[in-house]
Amino acid sequence: MSAIRLVPACAGLLAASLAAGAETLEYGRFGTVSVTRPAGEPRAVAVLASDAAGPGALDAALTEALRARGTLVLGVDAGRLWRQARPEDDGADACTFIGWDFEAFAQYAEKTLGLADYRQPLLVGSGLGAQLVWAAAAQSTINTFRGVLTLGFDPAWTSQWPLCDGDQGRVAQAAAGSPGEHLVPPPQLRIRWTTLRGGADGVTDAALQAFVAQVPRAHAVDVPDAALAGVPTPWLAPFGDAWEALATPAPTTALADLPLIELPAQATQRGSADWLAVILSGDGGWADIDRELGERFQAAGIPVVGFNMLKYLWRARSPEEAGRDLERVLAHYRSAWDRRRVLLVGYSLGADILPFAVNRMSPAGRDGVALAALLAPSRRVEFEFHPWDWIGASDDSHNPRALLVAPELLQLAVPALCVYGVEDEDDTACVELGSNARPTVLRLPGGHHFDENYRALAERVLDAAQRAATGATP
């Protein structure tokens, strides 16, 4: 389907401002977004989507409850957003995709508001906002949002226009006797979701429970005296309990300061018992290609550690710091998972960072690295994430902080594979290595995403790793 994505025309459309004493952001089709800061550095970030009529008394009460719990609250008028979300054409394949837009908005907002670290947002919504934040999470890659908390979610709600399938599957289907679509949980949906049902609202408990039962990590809570149009007070105690359950971080570990995703091996297969894979993601975080590769390695019996480069490079890093942190990751998981051989994979931004990090690891830290596979590396890289990179508003060729990638590739002290798509050859460091370079260069069909043929890409990388482990050319 051809999707509409609610991105701004340029980074300048997002600007912090003060209006009538309240801090706001102006962001594309989201319009004016209210900003409510807690005292001190936020412990969490919430995108709060209102009902169709716009923010009201309930939103104000929820905002204050979240602020008191140390949360930065970004208040969105869901009615305005949904009116702007209509597909631009009426073709058979036209659909609306809002998951990426909530993610991109949160990232722009956090960067603009100066948060020291990127905090995975929680999506909160009431009424129409409940339907939209649920759809956004269902359309998105797993681990995009920390969780979803809805008030008055209605499983019988009908969208006026089609919703695009998401990374986890179909999120809506045609409604019988209606031109619109009903929400449906994708079969592979993996989100932490709590919904509060007001006893005075029209949603039946049976219908809601039947819907929630299809989502493994979800549950519904009845609030008998509450109604979306009523006074906010009955909602606040159960809302606070649900929020704390979603927002409380996991227990601290030795690597708690690093944004890692663990994919333990599903089952050991022949030849995989000794392997560990570490994947450095692109600038979209743990997204389509990173997740697909990780899950394919995992299915092959290789446990995977995902390293979210969007979060890691939220603040400026140095190559030396990246090397130390990657060495920590390898040391920890080789011991914890009892693995000797390591496959390092970087995609896009992760591929840019990987050779710098490997070259600055100690010889002992690099020991056991059988292959470094760089997928779609750029010619230059800066060790800090900038949201405007997504819309082509930066030019690293004139950036004094951008470092050349090819020289680091040529200095790699481990076997390496440099992979690029033929449509991406003007922008990749792989073509700068020369025919006699030690890194093996692999040219594949497609562009930066390799025509989304991730299964074949995973097989190529695994084959190269097995060859490299025997001393052969990857």
Automatic annotation (TrEMBL):
Q: Which residues form the signal peptide?
A: 1-22
Q: Where is the Bacterial virulence domain?
A: 274-467
Q: Per UniProt, what is one Pfam family of this protein?
A: VirJ
The membrane spanning regions, by residue number, are none
Q: Which UniProt keywords apply?
A: Signal
Q: InterPro entries recorded for this chain?
A: AB_hydrolase_fold (IPR029058), IV_sec_VirJ (IPR011225), VirJ (IPR010333)
SUPFAM superfamilies associated with the record? alpha/beta-Hydrolases
Protein's UniProt name = Type IV secretory pathway VirJ component
Organism annotation? Plasticicumulans lactativorans
